[in-house]
Each structure stands twice: as structure tokens, then as C-alpha cells.
């Protein structure tokens, strides 16, 4: 039986408080599953959910915590993730050397999230894809994208006082050029775009 189905079964006929506690445990266990951390020990689940309605570890271990233990065990049995200790080939064996249990747990969570992120990146980025980043200004590469001297002078003229005075245009804080009737001749951000082009092309 899946944890989801078991949660539904366990909540049948129980008090509101127990039902809410089961729900809190379920949420914490689901977070562990999403992180890819195969650690469903009672102490771990209790620590992670201590501020969210999950009882203390001893309460879960007591006879009254039978339903809670069953739900946690269900996640452990149905976990698609194997013990992080088996991933030592990925350089994670150092985590087990951390003495502080809280820090060890946090390190496992961070490591599992890193592994999951790497897998996503491998799915998104094609293998052997080379990404080149050019700083056109300092390297001189990509000259075909640079402004010619004539193009640069044309853009500089649009920013000049002589052009704006000739056509009675006024710049605004929004990067516009407006005429005497307050109508935008150059739309918002046009002046900013011209400045960026001059800086980077």
C-alpha cells in the first residue's frame, strides 16, 4: 500500500488531532522523498517536523504512536531512493564522518539536492554542448555584432542635446523623449536601450 493510501486508511475513525498529526508527518516524509533523502528514521522525521505538528521521537515510539510509525515505515518501504551511503562513489562518504547529527542530516539534504539538480541539468543541457561567453568590449571577439563608427555616431546623435533641441524633445526619467505636447516620440526605455548598445556593442 502506498503512503498516500495508508494515510487515508489511518485517518479513518481517528480524532481530529491524530488526523492532523498524521498529515504533518506525511508532509515531512514527502519533503524527504522530493529531496531524494532516504532517511525516514523516527528521530529525523521528528526533528524536521518539530515546529509543524510532528510529535517528539519518544511519543512516536510509544504505544500510542503506532499509526505514526506505520506511516513513516510506509515511506521507508516505498522509497524509490537508495541509501545515500551507497552513493559513496559520488564522493559523499565524508558526510558520515560528521559527528553532529543535525549537521550530518543537513549535509545529506544538501548533497541529495545537489545530485537532483545535476540530474536535471543533464536532462536540459545536451551532452558535449559548448557554451562560449564573449566579452565583446574587452576581447574584441564577435566584431560582426559590433556597431560601425557610422552606426555609433548615429546613436550618439540621438542622445545629444543638439538633436533634442532641434526637434524640441525632452528626455524623461523613463527613458522616453517627449515633444512639446508631452507626446512620447521615443517610447519608454528607448534612451536606456541606446546607451546599452553604445556600451556593449
From TrEMBL:
It comes from the Bacteria. InterPro entries: GmtX-like. This is Gamma-mobile-trio protein GmtX. It comes from Pseudoalteromonas distincta.
